[in-house]
Design brief:
heterodimer; A: alpha+beta; Alpha-Beta Plaits; two-stranded antiparallel ribbon; 5 helices; B: alpha/beta; Ubiquitin-like (UB roll); Barwin-like endoglucanases; 6-stranded mixed β-barrel
């Protein structure tokens, strides 16, 4: 049968000759490779002391953003949830009441917003689909947890903190 | 397509199609399944050619290569018509037109409630206009407060005029209009305020975009694709309009019209649409419980069944009280459980007799009762004693359409096609055909009435009998009473002149004579060769169904309990305090010793119960109800509640199982049992496919394919995903997996078709636009008159009303918002309930030295009621009107004689 890639090599089944039977040259050859790698760049990082530089398109844990005035951007339109291939996002919309204009940017907001991080595949479709620039995937990993329920991220986990001072603009992810 | 129809051959993009003659091109193209954009055209309101969105190229003949642009909705599909939808010029025109319409449309789909089911979104995508080029400032408008039902966001308007055409021309509303100056066109009220029309909720579906949206949904907003929906039947009156009930997070979110070409068509009333909030009430009973005088102890289902078995079914004489708001199956199971002789209908004798009378007339009489949709085809109408706008609202809407039939004949004679709405209306000039009202007082339909007369209930019946005499007289002598202008003479004349006269009456005045008089009139018209129709409105959603099973009524049960013949009672979904007087209900429950109640909301009856089992409302249960025309219709459970709520028949089935070991496997088994015992109900089996029905191998999903958040919704309760609930009672599944095409017509859980996300996708579920659903309209009529029926006329049995000195005959006044038992428990609807009053004739008020707003005290059967008085000059003297079903008037048995005293 013709091979698929032309790269397959037939296995050498001849008995070993004397040079091979000594083993020592092969051992030395192997040690040589090991020695060579001692002087090469390390392939691993000493996480967590040291972090790996991420690619600019890395997709980590989600955040819910605020606008320049510190108001929640999310209007609970549901597009992230419907775009989510893992169906891991759910939300409940609520109507902004008079007097809450400083809290919510638009007339509706998410009263409840939950992401099941166990289900999330970090594809970033939610970020892509968001018409209000409200949800972003950051460079943070989902931290480990002892319990499964710790992976259900609610609004309190996702929403970036309210700006301390009113005139200080909230830094948005570039 | 129906046989015997004249067909026309048309060519669409050079392919030949055979279509029925007399339609417009847009209808025809949509029926053929083409994707053609449109806004102002609506299948129920036809064409006006206002939006210019349905442009196609029309060719003179096969040699014409240039053609001309026409609006397909304004062009008849005649034999040999050649059009092109896909012609690049037509496509460019439609895309350009929508770009112009979108100039001022805000970019707010994420906050807009219509988003995801927006006709404008669909059409924009369909036309190919994807990106906005306009960068200028958009015009803005003020939004109005339009009451608790409708939210107004005028900036989204694209000026299609559908709203005013529906509200004013179709539904007869007066308080929505269009105001315009140059390019500023505004659809709203003259000033902020509640939209008064009873059908205002349909604006939500009629508006192609988000100008009018559902304010009640907004309180717990959910996108269409996230809703779990099931086909359902409205439980708020006897007409049985088809609805789609939708749920998310364990609460009902909204009600939409479910198209049924035989019943409600494209519309429902506001009571039906917004009256569902009681299902989410905090008064809901969610857990079985055992109650003693001052404590309530929640029970598990097993304990409850065990306890019920031990303490209720250990008794000797157990009776069951059914209910007109419980399904056929629930009433049947109760009857099975307690035995034939111990089952009592849940309504007092006077009401029970009326419904039985109606059933016998419809069953044994010789006149057909038309379906709600057929009512629209009659050309002369007489209403006897029924305030239909308030007792059966959609019937009033149908009457309004029927009233247009005779004047329209003139337009058709001028060869104006039926679908050319603007031209037809121009020719009709707001005239109405013969509509005669004979009621106790002024009703809303008076505005379209040829003549309205007001009389006491007994006098209405007597006038009805006189009309029969007039009809006989007129038919016997060609020029008999031609000249007489009396009410009875003109009614008789117009009914005889009409092709299809219709008599409408009902049970609302608790007067058997009126029902008999209405039947007599219809019989005599039939005997004169007319295609007469007879419609009765009955009190509640399943009044007809329950009465078909009931031989004894609530009064019989009360009598039996008084004599000590009852040891325990089971009450299924019935608040006795709503039916009968407080004292009577108190005594009855006391005399019954042990009380088991299956109920969905806490009420006075449940406070007296020893055991309460949580019964589902229409949203949590499956069942069959029979509407006023005798049409049996299936409603399905929408979602599986997280608590113990379930269908009443299911509870009763479980109880039966624990007592005797007889267990019906599922809903179908209950239906089978029922039709075995009652062969006259055999057709109930064919109302909808049974539970093992599959499309291919698949069930029909209640959730859309786009349903979101499945793995996250319940994660806050339990991270491990539970198995999705199984529905053993219906061919529908509680999940999003299943058959994705058009399901059988009784089992349509939502309307959606590729490219058509809005309710306009109904077109894709119909055999032809505005026609029947694929597979026939749902519902099976149980009562059909046969030609062999020769049942005779009723004899006049009433005396003329004579007033009594110092006493008033108090009759019930009905309110669309307020007279219904359950819908009033929702906050939005409750806002619309008027304050309680007693209406009296102005002359009576003068005599008693009273004026509007004075407080009076009315005394009757040892009861006292103190309320303010309102003058209603159309009400005959000696009669007073009291709203039925209000908090203050609950349980009052109408009509009664009362003494009135000023306080």
């Amino acid at each position: 049968m013709e091979s698929l890639t032309n790269r397959s090599k037939p296995v050498d089944r001849r008995p070993m000759n004397l040079w091979e039977k000594i083993y020592l040259p092969a051992v030395i050859k192997g040690l040589g490779i090991t020695l060579k790698h001692l002087f090469k760049k390390k392939a691993t990082y000493n996480f967590p002391e040291q972090t790996r530089p991420f690619s600019p398109v890395f997709r980590g844990l989600h955040i819910l953003n605020r606008d320049e005035e510190g108001r929640e951007r999310c209007t609970a339109c549901g597009l992230c949830a419907v775009a989510c291939p893992a169906e891991a996002i759910t939300m409940e919309a609520a109507e902004r009441k008079p007097g809450e204009e400083h809290l919510y940017r638009e007339e509706k907001y998410a009263a409840r917003y939950e992401i099941n991080m166990l289900r999330c595949i970090f594809c970033g479709f939610c970020e892509e689909t968001c018409p209000k620039d409200a949800i972003y995937l950051t460079e943070t990993f989902a931290p480990a947890n002892y319990q499964r329920k710790g992976f259900i991220y609610g609004k309190e986990d996702l929403l970036i903190p309210f700006p301390e001072k009113e005139n200080q603009p909230v830094t948005e992810k570039p | 397509m129906p046989l015997g129809l004249i067909m026309a051959k048309i060519f669409v993009d050079n392919i030949e199609y055979e279509v029925p003659d007399g339609k417009n091109l847009l209808e025809v193209c949509l029926s053929l399944g083409f994707n053609l954009t449109y806004f102002c055209w609506h299948p129920a309101m036809h064409s006006v050619g206002a939006c210019r969105q349905c442009g196609v190229i029309n060719f003179k003949d096969e040699n014409d290569k240039r053609g001309r642009l026409v609006m397909s909705c304004m062009q008849a599909a005649t034999n040999g018509t050649r059009i092109s939808i896909e012609d690049p010029r037509a496509r460019a025109f439609r895309a350009g037109n929508i770009e112009a319409l979108m100039l001022n449309h805000p970019h707010d789909c994420p906050v807009c409630d219509e988003g995801g089911e927006c006709h404008l979104q669909d059409m924009t995508v369909m036309s190919g206009h994807n990106y906005r080029r306009n960068t200028f400032k958009k015009r803005t408008h003020y939004n109005q407060y339009l009451g608790p039902f409708i939210n107004h966001e005028m900036n989204r308007c694209i000026q299609c005029y559908r709203c005013v055409r529906f509200y004013n021309d179709y539904a007869g509303g007066k308080d929505l209009a269009v105001f315009a100056a140059h390019d500023d066109v505004y659809f709203g009220r003259q000033e902020e305020g509640v939209l008064e029309n009873e059908f205002s909720g349909n604006l939500v579906e009629v508006c192609p975009t988000g100008v009018f949206t559902d304010k009640v949904l907004r309180k717990h907003y959910t996108r269409k694709w996230d809703l779990t929906s099931a086909p359902s039947v409205c439980h708020q009156c006897s007409l049985g309009c088809n609805i789609l009930t939708s749920e998310r997070y364990g609460g009902i979110r909204r009600i939409l019209t479910r198209y049924n070409g035989d019943v409600n068509g494209y519309f429902i009333c506001d009571r039906g649409r917004f009256g569902y909030e009681y299902t989410n009430s905090d008064q809901r009973i969610k857990q079985p419980s055992k109650n003693t005088d001052n404590s309530s102890q929640p029970l598990s289902t097993e304990d409850a069944l065990h306890d019920v078995k031990d303490s209720i079914f250990s008794k000797k004489n157990i009776i069951g009280i059914g209910s007109p708001r419980a399904s056929l199956e629930s009433n049947f199971m109760l009857k099975e459980l307690v035995g034939e002789n111990n089952f009592y209908g849940g309504i007092p004798k006077r009401e029970s007799d009326l419904v039985h009378r109606v059933i016998s007339i419809l069953h044994q009489g010789k006149v057909k009762t038309p379906s709600l949709k057929e009512v629209e085809s009659y050309d002369a109408i007489l209403i006897l004693g029924e305030d239909v706008t308030n007792t059966a609202p959609m019937l009033a809407l149908a009457v309004r359409q029927a009233a247009k039939n005779q004047p329209r004949e003139k337009a058709y004679a001028l060869r104006i096609p039926q679908w050319d709405d603007a031209a037809v209306r121009e020719s009709v000039q707001g005239q109405t055909g013969p509509v005669y009202l004979l009621t106790t007082h002024h009703t809303k339909l008076d505005e379209i009435a040829t003549k309205a007369e007001y009389a006491a209930p007994d006098d209405i019946a007597i006038t009805g009998f006189e009309i029969v005499q007039q009809i006989t007289r007129l038919s016997q002598s060609a020029n008999g009473d031609e000249s007489s202008q009396s009410f009875t003479a003109s009614v008789a004349r117009d009914l005889l002149k009409a092709k299809k006269p219709l008599i409408i009456s009902g049970t609302s005045l608790y007067n058997t004579a009126i029902i008999q008089a209405a039947a007599n009139i219809a019989y005599s018209l039939k005997d004169n060769g007319k295609d007469a129709g007879l419609v009765y409105a009955v009190p509640e959603v399943n009044s007809m169904g329950m009465s078909m099973l009931e031989q004894k009524n609530l009064d019989d049960a009360i009598g039996r309990a008084k004599e000590g013949g009852v040891d325990a009672v089971i009450i299924a979904e019935n608040d006795l305090y709503f039916r009968v007087d407080r004292d009577i209900a108190n005594d009855f429950l006391k005399n019954c010793h042990h009380v088991l109640v299956l109920e969905n909301l806490q009420n006075e009856t449940t406070t007296k119960a020893d055991y309460i089992l949580p019964a589902g409302t229409f949203a949590e249960s499956t069942g069959t109800v029979v509407n006023n025309e005798g049409r049996a219709q299936r409603f399905y459970q929408v979602y599986k509640p997280s608590n113990e709520m379930r269908s009443s028949w299911d509870w009763l089935n479980e109880i039966r199982n624990s007592i005797s070991g007889v267990h019906a496997e599922n809903f179908d088994a209950v239906v089978d049992e029922m039709i075995k015992k009652y062969p006259e109900l055999a057709k109930v089996k064919s109302v909808a496919p049974d539970a093992n029905f599959r499309k291919g191998t698949q069930k029909i999903p209640r959730e859309t394919a786009r349903y979101s958040g499945r793995t996250a919704m319940l994660a806050n309760i339990n991270v491990s995903e539970p198995k999705p609930p199984v529905d053993k009672d219906s061919p529908l599944s509680f999940t999003m997996e299943g058959y994705q095409g058009v399901p059988p017509s009784p089992d349509v859980p939502f309307f959606w078709s590729p490219g058509w996300n809005s309710v306009q996708s109904i077109n894709r579920y119909q055999t032809e636009v505005g026609g029947a659903l694929h597979g026939g309209n749902p519902g099976v009529r149980l009562l059909e008159p046969s030609n062999e029926n020769k049942s005779g006329y009723f004899n006049q049995s009433t005396e003329k009303f004579s007033r009594r000195e110092g006493e008033w005959l108090v009759i019930p006044f009905y309110h669309i918002y307020g007279s219904d038992e359950l819908s009033v428990k929702g906050p939005a609807l409750a806002e619309r309930i008027p304050p309680v009053y007693i209406a009296m004739n102005g002359k009576d008020l003068e005599k008693g030295n009273l004026k509007d707003g004075d407080h009076i005290e009315i005394t009757f059967n040892q009861n006292k009621l103190s309320i303010s008085v309102k003058s209603e000059n159309t009400l005959p003297e000696g009669i007073a009107g009291l709203p039925k079903g209000f908090k203050e008037t609950t349980g009052i048995e109408f009509p009664f004689w009362g003494r009135i005293r000023k306080v």
